[in-house]
């Protein structure tokens, strides 16, 4: 026995109708009509006016008559129907359009992630955005890497620190691999967010000011590196090897939670000594 998935055009039509019918015309300041409304919610012509499309277009969408709306039309309908972020993403998926979020990345960590990072102690943890800006961290991560509080906010960037901060210059045992993988990850973020001028400016600054970055950027490697192993030379406790895992919260997809775990008993002993300080 075989089953068929729901036709996307039929589901898009039904979704638009239900979202339209749940809206209260009074919330939109629409003029009252002499004749009573026979159906709940907004009329099709009202949605068309709010979205800047023709009434016929809305009718054809709601009748599943083979239309594939553009990303611009989907965005306009999302605003007109006052969709939530999850509903907006769902509408983009139904329309076969890749959802691009033009919003700039967060410059502060979500409060829930700040609490989670603190609760992960004694595991070193931090949160970054797509630019590698470090948004929050716990004490264990600060003791392992460096005291981020001593840096101006614009320099709390993992890529810039690895390339330009004297304390970090020789911190990683396999430094070129770490930098290479970081640049490959940054290139993927740059391609996915061409509207992010701050990210573009960071890449331009590093390309102009650091020969190593310019060379590796020019190789055009692309890799989203979510887990792996790093070995570090800590000035106080010696060699520390960790496994790292990068997690993306569903509610904050531009923020990445990075967690370190000791890779061996000697490294765990070193991390324990750091935590006890």
Automatic annotation (TrEMBL):
<dbReference type="InterPro" id="IPR041413">
    <property type="entry name" value="MLTR_LBD"/>
</dbReference>
<feature type="domain" description="HTH cro/C1-type">
    <location>
        <begin position="41"/>
        <end position="88"/>
    </location>
</feature>
<dbReference type="InterPro" id="IPR010982">
    <property type="entry name" value="Lambda_DNA-bd_dom_sf"/>
</dbReference>
<protein>
    <submittedName>
        <fullName>Helix-turn-helix domain-containing protein</fullName>
    </submittedName>
</protein>
<dbReference type="Pfam" id="PF17765">
    <property type="entry name" value="MLTR_LBD"/>
</dbReference>
<dbReference type="GO" id="GO:0003677">
    <property type="term" value="F:DNA binding"/>
</dbReference>
<dbReference type="Pfam" id="PF13560">
    <property type="entry name" value="HTH_31"/>
</dbReference>
<dbReference type="InterPro" id="IPR001387">
    <property type="entry name" value="Cro/C1-type_HTH"/>
</dbReference>
């Amino acid at each position: 026995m075989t089953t068929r998935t729901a036709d996307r055009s039929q589901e898009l039509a039904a979704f638009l109708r239900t979202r339209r019918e749940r809206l209260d015309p009074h919330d939109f300041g629409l003029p009252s009509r002499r004749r009573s409304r026979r159906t709940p919610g907004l009329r099709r012509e009202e949605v068309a006016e709010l979205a800047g499309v023709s009434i016929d277009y809305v009718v054809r969408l709601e009748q599943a008559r083979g239309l594939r709306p553009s990303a611009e039309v989907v965005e306009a309908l999302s605003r007109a129907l006052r969709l939530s972020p999850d509903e907006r993403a769902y509408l983009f998926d139904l329309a076969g359009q890749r959802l691009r979020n033009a919003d700039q990345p967060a410059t502060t960590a979500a409060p829930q992630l700040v609490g989670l990072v603190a609760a992960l102690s004694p595991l070193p943890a931090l949160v970054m955005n797509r630019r590698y800006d470090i948004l929050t961290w716990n004490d264990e991560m600060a003791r392992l890497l460096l005291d981020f509080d001593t840096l101006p906010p614009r320099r709390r960037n993992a890529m810039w620190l690895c390339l330009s901060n004297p304390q970090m210059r020789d911190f990683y045992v396999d430094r070129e691999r770490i930098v290479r993988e970081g640049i490959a990850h940054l290139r993927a973020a740059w391609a996915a967010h061409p509207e992010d001028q701050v990210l573009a400016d960071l890449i331009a600054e590093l390309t102009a000011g650091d020969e190593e970055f310019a060379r590796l950027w020019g190789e055009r490697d692309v890799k989203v590196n979510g887990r792996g192993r790093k070995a570090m030379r800590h000035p106080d406790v010696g060699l520390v090897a960790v496994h790292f895992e990068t997690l993306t919260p569903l509610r904050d997809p531009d923020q990445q939670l990075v967690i370190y775990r000791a890779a061996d008993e000697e490294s765990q002993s070193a991390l324990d000594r750091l935590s006890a300080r």
